[in-house]
Write a structure and sequence with these properties.
The complex is a heterodimer of chains A (472) and B (766).
Chain A (H helix, E strand, L loop, with lengths): L8 E4 L2 E4 L10 H6 L24 E5 L5 E5 L12 E3 L13 H8 L9 H14 L3 H5 L10 H8 L18 E5 L2 E5 L3 H10 L4 E3 L6 H5 L7 E4 L9 E4 L2 E5 L4 H8 L6 H7 L5 H6 L2 H7 L7 H7 L2 E6 L3 E6 H4 E3 L2 E2 L6 E8 L6 E7 L10 E10 L2 E10 L6 E2 L1 H7 L6 H14 L10 H20 L10
Chain B lengths: L23 H6 L15 E7 L5 E3 L5 H4 L4 E5 L25 E2 L5 E7 L2 H10 L4 E3 L6 H7 L7 E5 L2 H7 L2 E9 L11 E6 L5 E5 L4 H12 L6 E5 L11 H17 L3 E4 L2 H7 L6 E9 L5 E11 L7 H10 L9 E9 L14 H4 L1 H14 L3 H8 L17 H15 L1 H14 L3 E14 L8 E8 L5 E5 L8 H13 L6 E3 L2 E2 L14 H28 L7 E3 L2 E4 L2 E4 H10 L5 E7 L4 E3 L4 E3 L3 E14 L5 E10 L7 H19 L31 E6 L19 H5 L1 H10 L11 H12 L1
Parallel strand pairs in B: 1-12, 10-11, 14-15, 18-19, 28-29
Antiparallel strand pairs in B: 1-5, 2-4, 2-6, 3-5, 7-15, 8-13, 9-10, 9-12, 11-20, 13-14, 16-27, 17-18, 17-24, 21-22, 22-23, 25-26, 27-28
Helix pairs in contact in B: 6-7, 11-12, 15-16, 16-17
The chains are: A alpha+beta (472), B alpha+beta (766).
The complex binds flavin-adenine dinucleotide and FE2/S2 (inorganic) cluster (FES) (2 copies).
Chain lengths: 472, 766
């Protein structure tokens, strides 16, 4: 194909690099960064603490042309995904004359490092945070430190200043790319048409969006897929539209950018707050709604709210064009979907809650940040004259798939907003679900806390003046 | 032993200066090299462990062929390939195998090591092995071990007074049972060793270890060679917390074996999952107790059993149990008692050292007793706490015969309460609880007396090696290891103080068995106590020689020679420190010395279970307030107020970091960190995605800390400082107590996850 790149080009710490043609595109960015030159970048400042996206020791930053800085987990990102990007690692913050960056100085001078193994990753999160702002705990959710207790690190985060540095220019991309080494091909088509054609031709290929689920198979399980079809360069899959009544989100739009969009839809605030607890900034820098739907885990965090809202999933294929399914039809079983072998999820159509509706999202986990849900929920209530006209109560973690609670919904329908009505709905939940026990939670806790969430919903409506959550 | 040096003159970088960790800036730029960052020597191979997929069973001799057939695999090593002994026991008191032979005793137990050209090939080789294991029923709980009498060693029992009669005579009799979980160290840098063979059987091990000497011994045992063939080096660890004591030794030994077998450098770096499966953790405990008290809540008698899950083998459990039973009364006095410590044998990974070493578990006991007593007497927990503190009107002697400083216990407690504005906040919490429909606040306190010294008396020794060069620069080496705790800068400060030079003149170097031999692990909070003194001795010896030369040159008495500000002076005479070094060299005087220290005045009789095992005690107190959601069990720590006794702090910045970090680590153990085994004995919380250590949000929203002022150590410690590595971890117990307050005092097992908190609330606590 014309204009097709066959070698990975990226900017590393301001330097344009074109990688040798025999560089495996399906290796992790971290392995490449740490690997000795010439096959790797020979930069060992970025650390591996877990290889599963949770500790943040491997955090590096993608610099966008508009100046935005997106921290990502180098242990999850595949090298081929970094084609056309500008990356910065901890080494790249040091000035040419060897002077450490103010962020690095601040970390050292405020006793924000003890053993130092987490420090490079925290420095990179801090550097991104100094530009992008937001809550410090959110910026740190993807970075673990076992030594300091975080107080000095939070101190550094509270006093960060943007260095004003312009983004390093990323290599210009023309068209799609295909990186091939013996035993592995990585396709990154640049149009939807090309993507659908490739999907039809290679139904066995890994369909890669952010890679925050798939990347684990490489990073942790050391798999070496024969073929990867990456969706990251397909513009149609990153499109969004905010229309009255409907929000349309491209399946491969990273959560970080989805959050920018949700900021413009105030009635979606509960969903935005919910998404800010999905993984960490690093995870949200890459992860996508399409990936959450594709994985179809019963504890996928976006699914209960989307089910409560009644979203439609638009699928596409070269063979049949588009088809639209209700989310409930799309998810067919435990980690199973209605997606055909030649199909790709194109976008998600999210009905916006009407004026006066009550919309709430809930997530329960052992730790508030960067944890997988024990129970997640999305609630949408339509109230008419103080009476519940319709209740859509969707739960994750309660069954083999994300599911609505028909008996609890029925118990609420037509009832006034009283403690008793919600208590009866909570009772009914015991007939809707028989959850399982595992390391995230026992069956009893899942049921009892889900019942608690319904009671909390009552207080949300009855006492909007009260803080009802332990987190400020 | 010389007497403690006088209080330091306030120098910029000497004692008491708040200097930062020695490599802080290199950490932040990524320039600091950890073991995996060292350039790999040409030809380096990579190794991976094959681990048992079964918790308990008879193991047929392993067929190594499938791994050998994997492309890139160079060697596959099992028990038959061990040239020395297949024994990694750190105590030498039990046979503990490097590779299972005949029997597997826990899921994740090492079976073999695969060595290959790449790490992926080694992992693929390990995955290709198909061990044949005839399963046996596993013992997976402390209860099951107690029922079958499966113990790793005889019970350790401390007794005092006629506890039985006192129990029966007590006006109020109480009983309780509760448990605490284990804890994964989760050092951010996983276990790793790079083994580099030299000539004629020499081998150098670059190991991430808290105990280079033990690495040397275990590797030599496995290789079947003299200790002098094995050199162990460690510049820094990415965290240790006790997890790189005995566990680092066997990992290094496995790497050494691979290097010996192949004749090439070999790196063994465990993946996080393998690390969590194959290395030991903090001991979970089951507590059962009976107590007697009077109507006012003064304890009269106690009979308690502390049963630890030691895992499948002895490892360091004897020491952990020792510390648990010696800390079971913590800061309290009970006139008559029996405390029994048991190390149960189960089919789980062998539990090991973890910051506090049984002390944190032991100190939980009295908290449970106090809560039960509060329920029975209707009195507030904190009133009972104060009534039963050791010293004052109560006895000050621990049941094993050592005295606690009752006035310090009362002082830290009073200062913590005062600083926390405790009374007012309790009233505010009660008002909040009465008004809010779903949330509830809880308040909890804790006071601590923690003994400092190794339980094994011989370990309380240390060495150091100091060189002064003719330009006046100084090279420092000692037996302690740096894992982030700031030991290296503290010891450098000691040496800077002795020579009266700025700390920048001192080059801190990697710990090495070739420089300082026969060392103790850096553990039990003793790092600066022991190595500080040893370095002080070495530097002092050189300084004395230098002072002699200066005195002769100037014709003044030696005592008049002063080392300060980078200069040496006497009266009107003055020269730079480096000039004097040059002069010493010209006069052929040695500028190198070793230093050695052994902790004085400690002894222990393991049969009578009595003695003076601790050089001194470190005291602390803490108070916490939590906010609990009664609907979901979610909670948050709103505030914590800590007072910690550091004696006269060597470095308040480092000490503060240790205290805050230890507190949050302790809080993690007591709250969100849950190890979860399935019915087959497989650990299912094997990485940070499922095993949740505290994140930044778990830090108490308001986190206040004070170092106890004007409290120089009474024992002759280095510059009258006190150890700080472990004690503050126990202070986090106040968070448990605050949660327990919020759930109405009901039994609340640990870790107190939201799930357990909700269950306690539902159980009718509130
Ligand atoms: C550390 C960590 C924390 C996490 N925390 C959370 C959390 O809190 N909550 C949560 O819900 N999840 C969490 N996840 C899981 C993951 O981040 C999400 O599921 C995310 O939405 C996946 O998106 P992705 O684009 O990265 O998916 P990918 O890994 O790229 O793909 C996931 C699956 O979806 C398929 N897929 C992707 N896009 C499409 C498409 N357009 N059409 C068809 N199929 C597609 C892929 O083929 C694959 O099977 C976490 C993961 C990690 C590593
Ligand atoms: S190594 Fe832990 S998040 Fe990447
Ligand atoms: S400084 Fe050790 S993990 Fe953060």
């Amino acid at each position: 194909m014309a204009g097709m790149s066959s070698r990975i080009a990226l900017t590393l710490n301001g330097q344009p690099r074109t990688l040798p043609a025999d560089t495996p595109p399906g290796m992790t960015l971290l392995d490449w960064l740490r690997g000795p030159a010439p096959r790797g970048a020979g930069l060992t400042g970025t650390k591996e603490g877990c290889a599963e996206g949770d500790c943040g020791a491997c955090t590096v930053v993608i610099e966008a042309a508009d100046g935005a800085r997106t921290p990502v987990n180098a242990c999850l990102a595949l090298l081929g995904q970094m084609h056309g990007r500008a990356l910065r690692t901890v080494e790249g913050l040091v000035a040419a004359d060897g002077a450490p960056h103010p962020v690095q100085r601040a970390m050292a001078e405020n006793d924000a490092t003890q053993c130092g193994f987490c420090t490079p990753g925290i420095v990179m999160s801090a550097w991104a945070h100094s530009r992008c702002g937001g809550a410090a705990h959110e910026a740190l959710a993807g970075n673990l430190c076992r030594c300091t207790g975080y107080r000095p690190i939070l101190g550094v985060f509270a006093a960060l200043e943007d260095d004003g540095a312009p983004a390093a220019p990323a290599p210009a991309l023309e068209g799609g790319s295909e990186f091939a080494v013996p035993g592995q091909v990585f396709h990154a088509p640049a149009t939807l048409e090309a993507a659908l054609t490739l999907r039809a031709a290679h139904p066995e290929a890994w369909l890669l969006a952010g890679g925050t689920d798939l990347g684990l198979r490489v990073s942790e399980h050391r798999e070496r897929p024969a073929r990867i079809l990456s969706l990251g360069a397909v513009p149609e899959l990153a499109e969004t539209r905010l229309a009255p009544g409907l929000l349309t989100v491209g399946a491969a739009l990273p959560y970080a950018r989805l959050l920018d969009l949700l900021a413009r839809a105030p009635e979606m605030a509960p969903l935005a707050a919910h998404l800010r607890r999905l993984g960490s900034r690093q995870i949200r820098g890459l992860g996508t709604l399409g990936g959450n739907l594709g994985t179809a885990s019963p504890i996928g965090d976006t699914l209960p709210p989307l089910l409560a809202l009644g979203v439609r999933v638009v699928l596409g294929s070269a063979r049949a064009g588009e088809r639209v399914l209700d989310l409930a039809e799309f998810i067919t079983g435990y980690r199973q979907t209605a997606l055909a072998a030649d199909e790709i999820i194109l976008r998600v159509e999210i009905p916006r809650p009407p004026e006066g509706a009550v919309f709430a999202c809930e997530k329960l986990s052992k730790r508030h940040d960067q944890d997988i849900s024990a129970v997640a929920a999305g609630f949408l209530l339509r109230l008419e004259g103080g009476v519940v006209a319709e209740a859509r109560l969707a739960f994750g973690g309660m069954a083999a798939t994300v599911a609505r609670a028909p008996r609890a919904e029925a118990a609420l329908a037509g009832q006034p907003v009283t403690e008793e009505a919600f208590a009866r709905a909570a009772q009914a939940l015991a007939e809707d679900f028989a959850p399982l026990s595992d390391w995230r939670a026992g069956a009893e806790y899942r049921l009892h806390s889900a019942q608690g969430l319904l009671r909390r919903l009552h207080w949300r409506i009855a006492r909007p003046d009260l803080a009802l959550e332990v987190q400020a | 032993m010389t007497d403690a040096p006088p209080p330091p003159a306030a120098t910029r970088t000497g004692m008491g200066a708040a200097l930062r960790q020695d490599s802080a800036l290199q950490h932040a730029t990524g320039a600091a090299r950890f073991t995996d960052d060292l350039p790999e020597p040409p030809g380096t191979l990579h190794a991976a462990l094959a681990l048992s997929p079964v918790a308990h069973g008879r193991l047929a001799p392993l067929d190594l062929a499938p791994a050998r057939a994997v492309p890139g695999v160079v060697a596959v090593l099992g028990p038959a390939e061990v040239p020395g002994r297949n024994d990694i026991s750190p105590s030498g008191k039990a046979l503990e195998k490097l590779f299972a032979e005949g029997l597997v005793e826990h899921w994740g137990q090492p079976l073999a090591l695969v060595v290959a050209a790449t790490r992926d090939a080694a992992l693929a080789g390990a995955a290709a092995l198909r061990p044949e294991i005839a399963p046996l029923p596993p013992i997976l709980s402390i209860e099951a071990a107690l029922e079958t009498g499966a113990l790793l060693m005889p019970p350790q029992v401390i007794e005092r007074g006629g506890w039985q009669a006192a129990l029966e005579a007590a006006p109020l009799q109480l009983a309780g049972e509760f448990r605490c979980g284990g804890q994964e160290h989760f050092y951010l840098e996983g276990q790793i060793t790079l083994a580099v063979p030299g000539e004629d059987g020499d081998i150098t091990l670059h190991a991430s270890t808290q105990h280079p000497t033990e690495v040397q011994h275990i590797a030599s045992r496995v290789l079947g060679c003299d200790y002098n063939r094995v050199t162990v080096q460690c510049r820094r660890m990415g965290g240790g917390f006790g997890g790189k004591e005995s566990n680092a030794s066997w990992i290094a030994a496995a790497a050494a074996l691979a290097a010996r077998a192949t004749g090439r450098p070999v790196k063994l770096r465990l993946s996080r999952k393998a690390d969590m499966a194959a290395t030991g953790k903090r001991h979970p405990f089951l507590f059962r107790w009976r107590a007697g008290c009077d109507a006012e809540g003064r304890l009269l008698a106690l009979d308690a059993t502390l049963a630890a899950d030691g895992g499948h083998s002895l490892d360091l459990s004897a020491g952990v149990i020792f510390r648990a039973v010696t800390h079971a009364l913590n800061a309290y006095d009970v006139p008559a008692l029996r405390v029994t410590g048991l190390a149960c044998k189960t089919n789980t990974v062998s539990n090991t050292a973890f910051r506090g070493f049984g002390g944190p578990q032991g100190a939980l006991l009295m908290e449970d007793v106090l809560f039960s007593m509060a329920r029975a007497t209707g009195r507030p927990v904190d009133e009972l706490r104060e009534r039963n503190f050791a010293g004052g009107p109560n006895g000050a002697e621990t049941p094993y015969g050592q005295k606690l400083e009752g006035e310090l216990i009362r002082r830290v407690w009073a200062e913590a309460r005062q600083g926390a504005d405790w009374e007012r906040r309790r009233a505010a919490a009660e008002a909040f609880n009465a008004a809010h429909p779903t949330l509830r606040r809880g308040l909890g306190g804790f006071a601590l007396a923690f003994g400092i010294s190794f339980g094994i008396m011989a370990m309380n020794q240390a060495g150091a090696l100091v060189h002064v060069y003719t330009d006046g620069s100084i090279r420092l080496n000692h037996g302690g290891t740096e894992m982030g705790q700031g030991l290296f800068i503290k010891i450098a400060q000691v040496v800077a103080e002795v020579f009266g030079v700025e700390v920048e003149r001192i080059r801190i170097t990697a710990t090495s068995t070739a420089e300082v031999p026969n060392t103790a692990p850096t553990a039990a909070s003793t790092g600066s106590d022991l190595n500080g003194w040893a370095a002080h001795q070495a530097a002092g010896a050189i300084r004395a020689r230098m002072a002699g030369i200066a005195a002769t040159a100037w014709g003044v008495p030696e005592e008049e020679v002063i080392f300060a500000d980078g200069h040496v002076s006497a009266g009107n005479h003055r020269m730079r420190f480096g000039e004097l070094a040059q002069l010493c060299w010209a006069q052929r005087v040695s500028l190198s010395a070793t230093g050695f220290y052994r902790t004085p005045d400690i002894h222990w009789d393991p049969v009578a279970m009595r003695g003076h095992p601790f050089f001194y005690f470190s005291y602390g107190a803490a108070l916490a307030e939590v906010l609990v959601d009664t609907l979901t069990g979610e909670y948050r720590v709103l505030r914590a107020d800590l007072v910690q006794d550091c004696g006269r702090s060597l470095n308040p910045a480092i000490d503060r970091g240790q205290i805050e970090g230890a507190f949050l680590q302790g809080q993690g153990w007591l709250t969100c960190e849950e190890l979860w085994w399935d019915a087959d004995g497989r650990l299912r919380t094997l990485g940070p995605s499922t095993y949740k250590i505290p994140g930044s949000r778990e830090m108490p929203a308001e986190f206040n800390l004070r170092l106890l002022a004007d409290a120089p150590a009474r024992a002759n410690t280095i510059f009258r400082s006190k150890a700080v590595g472990e004690p503050p971890l126990l202070l986090a117990t106040c968070v448990w107590n605050a949660l327990r307050d919020a759930v109405g005092g009901a039994r609340l097992d640990l870790p107190a996850t939201p799930e357990r908190v909700l269950a306690a609330l539902r159980a009718g606590g509130a």
